[in-house]
Amino acid sequence: MAQVQRMSRLMVKTLRDDPADAETLNHKLLVRAGYVRRTAAGIWTWLPLGKKVYENVARVVREEMDAIGGQEVLLPALLPKEPYEASGRYEEYGDLLFRLKDRKGSDYLLGPTHEEIFTQVVKDQCSSYKDLPVILYQIQTKYRDEARPRAGVLRGREFQMKDAYSFDTSDEGLAEAYALHRGAYQRIFERLGLDYRIVSAVSGAMGGSQSEEFLAPAPAGEDTFVDCPACDYAANTEAVTFALKPASTEGHPAVEELDTPDTPTIETLAEHLGVPASATLKNLLVKVDGEIVAVGVPGDREVDLGKLGEHLAPAEVELVTAEDFEGRADLVRGYVGPQGLDKVRYIADPRVAPGTSWITGANKPDRHARNVVCGRDFEVDDYLDVVVVEAGDPCPACGAGLKLDRAIEIGHIFQLGRKYADTFQLDVLGQNGKPVRVTMGSYGIGVSRAVAALVEQTADEHGLCWSKEVAPADVHVVAAGKAVQTELALDVAGQLGAAGVRVLVDDRAGVSPGVKFTDAELIGVPQILVAGRRSAEGVLELKDRRTGEREELSVAEAIARLSA
Amino acid sequence: MAQVQRMSRLMVKTLRDDPADAETLNHKLLVRAGYVRRTAAGIWTWLPLGKKVYENVARVVREEMDAIGGQEVLLPALLPKEPYEASGRYEEYGDLLFRLKDRKGSDYLLGPTHEEIFTQVVKDQCSSYKDLPVILYQIQTKYRDEARPRAGVLRGREFQMKDAYSFDTSDEGLAEAYALHRGAYQRIFERLGLDYRIVSAVSGAMGGSQSEEFLAPAPAGEDTFVDCPACDYAANTEAVTFALKPASTEGHPAVEELDTPDTPTIETLAEHLGVPASATLKNLLVKVDGEIVAVGVPGDREVDLGKLGEHLAPAEVELVTAEDFEGRADLVRGYVGPQGLDKVRYIADPRVAPGTSWITGANKPDRHARNVVCGRDFEVDDYLDVVVVEAGDPCPACGAGLKLDRAIEIGHIFQLGRKYADTFQLDVLGQNGKPVRVTMGSYGIGVSRAVAALVEQTADEHGLCWSKEVAPADVHVVAAGKAVQTELALDVAGQLGAAGVRVLVDDRAGVSPGVKFTDAELIGVPQILVAGRRSAEGVLELKDRRTGEREELSVAEAIARLSA
Predict the structure, then answer these.
(1) What is the largest CA-CA distance in chain B?
(2) Which residues, 6+ apart, have CB-to-CB distance to B392 below 8 Å?
(3) Which residues form the Aminoacyl-transfer RNA synthetases class-II family profile domain (chains A, B) (predicted)?
(4) Share of chain B above pLDDT 70, in %
(5) For A31, which residue in chain B has the nearest alpha carbon?
(6) Which CATH architecture has domain A35-240+403-455?
(7) What fold is seen in the domain B473-562?
(8) What's the ipTM?
């Protein structure tokens, strides 16, 4: 028999007004409907209704992880420093990591993710190729000391994640584990009722391991992604590539120097010459591991320094300062052009293709040059996708203009490869008797974040609006208030519960029908069954929370319909 | 269909030898059988088999908490300092508390228990007597920085607890919530298969709130309790009382002073006079909030300073030092007797009853007195049970000699009263329209500790030995090794799984039958079904893990028996 929850006994306090500090739907509605309560910045309490929704999401995740052979474990959240020092992440995480000492002064951290510890577990438990492949997962509390925890349970400092890790002896095995997770994630998000896109997370140009993100489009999302309206291409903006299309370097006029006083910026230059910014070539100087490098992009585009940094990692990228120009007669600040940069590495966006012609700096104060042709007057050392992607940029797959959308990252699957296995020397004995280095994948779903994403995508002006699989109950029975109505409501609730239906029944005394109806809409159970006006005749009204459709039903009809 | 777990795919590595540092059964066996792995001192990873057992215990706890109307919530483990400062526990916990700072320098702690936060939640969510009573619970990770984390998962620094809190407007309501929890705890521990005793945790002499502990007798236990072999009395040693039995003060010989050179201790005195230590009266001097107080107990008994401290709390008890005797001619060190202590408060054990006669100090150097009669020669200001309880002490209920036993505290129920409600001014509007201060109970079960207690109580020389309710599987099917045996084992396992039986099947290739049998005993699933010698005939051997009884069965008989 499923549980019948009586509102008269349930700890749920609904609010008419949004919390003062709430900016996002999930924060406003989960608090107003009594699902969660803020304990500290980015640290939340799950109240009874919220705990049910959270557990429903966790159950779906667990079922699908078990279905692909995942083995559930539970690792600690309080972790010793050493494994994270070995991987380098104890420092890399910077301020994101909660660090603490125990009574003896030993260093610990609160786990932000558990690659290191899982690697150690497998090193300890698996010694032969026969022990692999293995997929391990946990649904566990994670910690990240976000600089600006906000957006309700979307980005907490303490939050719940399902993290899984696969261990294989071959790249093919890893690819298979990756495909299994990809399929499981699709089933999970479909069952939860989330609208999602799978996007490439790492630029193909960089090669290397495969990585995809599961994004739930929502205005409150903190991620931007591109979406092609013409084909099925979608990607993290950082993963978008632009095809290099070389043209002939012949037939261009000769380079011509121009007198362009006081035009150290693209804006001043374009205005002075009366040309669009896109006709000019912008050359940004940066330092890569201390060495000055120039980055060329069309004058109307911005360089994405984060993307540049990822391309060049582990080298460090910094902006140049006035001191860097000292003693460098070849670098004329504000008037740099690639045609005079013999001693400087030149990186360019693929838009600066061979055969394109530009207005750019003449490497002399207050002077620019026109008809500067790539491949004739200068060479590009490395082509990298480093411009900030904009709406309308061509789709790498079909060429149509891309859309830019905001989304919530709800899942991430990643072929880690041997990074952690190398750190911890995770080998198993191979079939040929020799040690084989293990290859790993890591796969995450934000469980508490999925709840937030569901709210952002499905709530309407009346409140929450859950899918059947995650709703805290299947039916919300409302007793309008009179004795006969309460009696009917409790009777129907009891019968539904006996039939295995999860019921929330509003049997509160001294609460007006209007307040009860408003609360039912706010709480968002998919079906609302009202014992109202025609209760004496045994007639109830069934309302679909999402569509608003209403229908009158007898008790028998209601039981039959809802327990179907 | 229940899950069929194949050992060939399960991450479980059994060990023949105990871990070097293991002192207790649960530590040795849970590690050897591949249930848990140590991540750091007192910090454990639950491996696949361990996670199943842990979840089974949690499920039983959850079902019984739901049955008494408990509402499940989930509070954070990372908590702001302020509520714990308000209650005084931020300091009181001392080194037991893990403390840390976030990136902004604000103080946080890892929750050791959540009274403060639950009080705040209820203050926020409940405003009227109509919102109460309420029972809230969570199954959650707790943190205590134990000085000597040891004994496996029995006393971890990170561990799992079910903590519940009741909120009522009246003492009667609290008593009812307490009784509900007491019943639920009895059902939980019975279902888990734990042998337990319910013992009084606070001395009746002190009055006040009721508190009981659920103790699981086990040699590895860190608690000592008394148990009456003749009646059902059981108590924490600190809660044992001794009845005061006054006798006549008439008919005793007069006090007589004795010359007892160099006898400042009970041992030297008893030897000098040739009397048993029990004939002498020991007078311990302590300082209570700075004032000197004497505590009288029979010479053969020890004063339990912890117990004395609890009786006199919040006053602070310290031992006296040499300086405390300066200027106190009435206090002759080593020769104190109550008959001369007019200016000193005299506390005595009930064994020092009116009418008892003693040899004690004469309040002069090297002098003692005999025939010093309580009620004739000195008066007792307060009777308190302060002696260390010993085996053979009389049962307060029936007078029989008590037994002393070691046990593991697996549960604790406690009528907190209004302590936290006072701290946080937790009031609700009463029926008469006036605010009512709320009264609370707190109720804990160590979930990970219950797993350890089960091992300590039920394991045998072959390994773990789970009860059906908590076992990681119902049946452990062992394929002895040949193809026909493996085929039969997998066939039977499949059929059992289809019939709803949870099956672990040892289908490992290249592992000897002997190793498989030893592993099955070590892993401790209640029923072991072997596809061995007579597999070709379709005959299996069923072995009861606990009793060792064996029986040959056909496939059909085995399915019928095990799915019954």
Answers:
(1) 96
(2) B401, B402
(3) 52-472
(4) 98
(5) B125
(6) 2-Layer Sandwich (3.30)
(7) Rossmann fold (3.40.50)
(8) 0.87
